[in-house]
Amino acid sequence: MRDLTVMARGGILLTAWAQAAGVPPGRLRGVLRAEGWQPVCRGAWAVPGRDVDWRVRATAIQLLSPHLVCSHRTAAAVLRIELLTGEPDMTTLEFLHPCTSAERPGVRVHRAPGLGERDHVVRRGLRVTTPARTAADLMRHTRCRDEAVVVADSALARRVIRGVRREALVRPEALAAELSARRPGAPAARAWLRLADPAAGSPAETVARLRMHDAGLHPESQPVLRAPNGRTVRPDFYFRAAGLVVEIEGYAFHGTRHAHERDIRRFNDLSGCPGVRRILRFTAAEVFRHPERVIATVRTALAAATPTAAATASGHAPKGLAPDVTCSVSAPVL
Q1: pTM higher than 0.90 for the full model?
Q2: Collapsing DSSP states into helix, strand and coil, what is residue 244?
Q3: So what's the pLDDT on residue 20?
Q4: Helix (H) or strand (E) holding 282
């Protein structure tokens, strides 16, 4: 009998390939189990010893159904687009198909008429919707403003995601063009896109900015400041007139000795920047779980500045935006 591993692609063997190579159907399942092959889904097996994770499942499904394209949260995981709720739940994989929709345990297929070559790319061995299409689909699909803006910020920004540094995935005009299509949820998504900020460094920063926006507070995001030693520092938020810096910090960024030492140097540099008079630091957990405390602390600090500075920092909320739809979520694992 032929070596079955030779027939595998990307660590996946389809039973149809083995049968086409002459392996008797009646013997195939017994041979595969005896050699340690692992069932992935009906008609697909993973090579012995392979960890059958969501990527393996997605690969097998695409080999079985070549017209399926990873989309929505599955595409976001491949492209490293962050979500409000942290790591996406990959128990159900999402795909687009140009003609049909379907849902069964572990798989959801969205019908996407007009889906063409320009709508998908190959990343990490999987066919996925382009970054613009992925972000737009997620923004149109959600009813939560915060989720939509987190997705937009992540796609538009340079980020370090799970230890991997990546460049911005899409330009603002490309995302706006994708959202111009007449699809359900597009009007709200276009309004929420106006709240996006490519300077945001994390979902927690996005949520903090939105909470300050709702409270009528409009600091600068990631402005460039220069310390007396010549180093450049970019605080998360800066109320320039009040000399107030607001920093949002997650354990994942500061969880090693090297990161802790870097954080101390950065704090000292930031403290010495001309114009900086006070620095407030909040954890991501505080932002997600107790935003009212964060806003109250910022307001108190601004009130302690000169009345003129506090008034300038507050500003006025932009007009013409769709009604804000916020949602309550548990803080992601940081």
Answers
A1: no
A2: strand
A3: 87
A4: strand 278-283
Average pLDDT over residues 148-158: 97
Residue 185's region, left for phi above 0, alpha for psi from -120 to 50, else beta, is: left
The per-type count for the chain, helices as H runs and strands as E runs, is 15, 17
Our measurement of the distance from residue 189's CA atom to the centroid of its chain's CA atoms, rounded to an integer in Å, reads: 16
Nearest-angstrom CA–CA distance, 181 and 130: 15
**Average pLDDT over all residues of the chain:** 89
- Taking the CA atoms of residue 202, residue 207, residue 209 and residue 214 in that order, the dihedral angle to the nearest 10 degrees is 170
Spatial distance between the Cα atoms of 113 and 249, rounded to a whole number of angstroms: 42
Strand positions, DSSP E, 25-178: 38-41, 44-46, 69-70, 93-97, 102-104, 107-111, 120-123, 126-129, 159-161, 164-166
The CA distance from 78 to 87, in Å, is 12
Task: Name all domains of the chain by residue range, CATH numbers in brackets.
Answer: 4-55 (no CATH), 66-192 (no CATH), 203-314 (3.40.960.10)
Assigned token pair, 184: 């359900």
Residues 47-62: pLDDT tens digits?
999 999 999 999 999 9
pLDDT in tens, 17-39: 988 888 888 888 888 888 899 99
Residue written as tokens 């990343």?
Answer: 123
pLDDT above 70 for 326: no
Query: Is the confidence at residue 126, as pLDDT, over 50?
Result: yes
CB 67 within 8 A of CB 58: no
Q: Decide: 225 and 270 in contact? Cβ < 8 Å.
A: yes
Beta bridge partners of 12: 9, 46
Burial letters for 57-91: b for 16+ Cβ neighbours within 10 Å, e otherwise? bbbbbbbbeeebbbbbbbbbbbbbbbbbbeebebe
112-116: long-range contacts, CB 8 A cutoff, minimum separation 24: 112/71, 115/69
